[in-house]
Amino acid sequence: MGFDVTGFRKNFPALNRKVCGNPLVYFDSAASSLTPIAVADKIRDFYLNNSANVHRGIHELSEEGTTAFEQSRAEIRTFVNAPSEQSVVLSYGCTDSINTIVNGFAASKLKSADTVLIAESEHHANIVPWQMLQKKIGFEIVKIPIDEHGRLRHEIMSEYAGKSIRFVCLASHSNATGVAHNVQEWTQWVHKQGGYLVLDAAQAVSHGAVDFKGLGVDFLSFSFHKMYGPFGVGALISKEEHLSDFVPVRGGGEMIDSVRFSGTTFAKPPQLLEAGTPNVAGVIGAGESIRFIRGFDSKELASHESSLAKMCREGVQSIEGVELLGNEDPQNAPLVSFAVKKCHPHDLSTLLNGYGIAVRAGHHCAQPVMDRYGFSGTIRASFLAYNTHDEVSYFVEKLKTSIKMLRDA
Ligand SMILES: Cc1ncc(COP(=O)(O)O)c(C=O)c1O
Question: What's the pTM value of the predicted model, to 2 decimals?
Answer without folding.
Answer: 0.97
